[in-house]
Amino acid sequence: MTSTNKNRNTVSKTLRFAMTLVGAMLCLSAVQARTWTSVDGSKTFEGELKSYDPATGILSVTLKNGSALKFTSDKLSEADNTFLKEQGKVEPGSTPAASTSVVSDGASADMSKPADMSKPVQVFILLGQSNMVGAGKVGGLDAAVKQQKKYPYLLDESGGWAVRKDVRNVRVMASGAGPWKMYNNEWMTITGNTMGPEFGIGHPLGNAIDAPVMILKSCIGNRALSFDLLPPNAEGYQGNKETPRKPKDVKDWYAGVQYDGDVKAAQDVLGDLKTYYPDATKYEVAGFFFWQGEKDAGNAEWANAYEKNLVLFIKALREDFKSPNAKFVLATLGEHTKGCGNKIFDAHMAVDGKDGKYPEFKGNVATVYSNPLSMGGSGNGHYGGNPETYMNVGEAMGKAMVELLKNPK
Prior knowledge:
Layout: H1 3-27, E1 34-37, E2 44-53, E3 58-62, E4 68-72, H2 78-87, E5 121-128, H3 130-133, E6 136-137, H4 138-146, E7 164-174, E8 180-188, E9 194-195, H5 198-208, E10 213-218, H6 257-271, H7 273-276, E11 283-291, H8 294-297, H9 300-320, E12 327-331, H10 343-350, E13 365-368, H11 387-405
Parallel strand pairs: 5-10, 5-11, 7-10, 11-12, 12-13
Antiparallel strand pairs: 1-2, 2-3, 3-4, 6-9, 7-8
C-alpha cells in the first residue's frame, strides 16, 4: 500500500472514530460508567468497561443503551491508557449484551478475522427482482475503486479485493415454487461479472454488528409484488394456505408462486446452516431488504394494490421467518423523484417508519430515497449497469438498517 493510501486510511479511521465518539455522547452514561476521552482531547463519552486485553490493546465499552463499542486503546487519551494499565486484563463481564450488538456507524472492524461464533448468526434476507439480483458491471467497479479511489474498504492492503471473514455472502434463486439453485456461498468479496447492492449492504452491517453476519439473497428478476410475490395474507393469493411453504403441485403460474419459492429457498438455507456459514450452530433473522417495483409500475391494477400488498408483505415475512422484531429496509426506484405522483414511489414512502403513515412501522421500517444515489438510468434498464448505483444504494440501505437495529423493538 502506498504512503498516500496509508495516510488516507489513517485520516479516515480518525474521522470515523470521532463520529463514533459523537454518537456515543448522545447515549450518556451507564451505571458505574467512566468518562473516556479521545487521544486529541476533543471528544468524550461515557460507558462501562466490559473487557480489555493488554496484549492487543482492544477494549469493549458498554453504553447506556446496551450497545457495545469496541476499539483499540491508541484511540484514547493518556489518562485513559493509564487507567487501563492499572486495571490490567479485564475479562468480558457476565452480563451479555443483546445478541444483535450494534457498535456504531463509524466503528471499524478487522474484516480479515472470523466473527465471534458463540453468538447467533445475524441473517439479513434480500428480496426483490432484477436490480436486487444485480446487474452492476464489476468491470466498472474495478475502475471506480482502483482508479477513482471510491469504496476503499473493498480493497485489501495488497490492492486486491478484500475478503470479509465475518460476513457470509449467500445467493440462491428459485423460479416460482420449483427447485432452487445456489449461486453464491462464500465470504463476502467481489466475484463474478455482475453485482447487486449486497456489498454496500454487507460492509456497514459487518462493521456495526458484533456477531457473525449472513447476507442471504433469494430473488429472481421480472416479478411483481401484486402477483408473483403476493404474500399469503393478501387477497388473491392462490398457494396452498394450509401448508404455504409446500405449495400444491401446479404447472401453471399462480398468484404468490414467487413468494413461496423465495421464502422456501431461504428457509432451506437456514435449515442447513453449517453448509452456508461454517461452524455456525444458531441464527436469528435480524432484517429484510427489498428493492423492487418495476414490474408493478407497468400494470395499473398491480400499481393500485401495491401499497396494501407491501404492508402485508412486510408482516408476512416476519411471520414466516418467526422474527416479529426483524427490521425492514427498502429502496425506491432510482428514476422516481419526490412529488412524481407514481403509485409505486408513493407506496415505498408510505411505509417509511419515520415519515410514512403506518404507526406500527415506526422504528422498524425505513425507506431509502435512491434518486440522489443513482448514477442515471431507470430500474427497467438496470441503471445502465453502473456499479456505483448499486454500491450507493446498498450503502444507504445498510446504514439505514444499522440505525434501525439500534432500536431493540
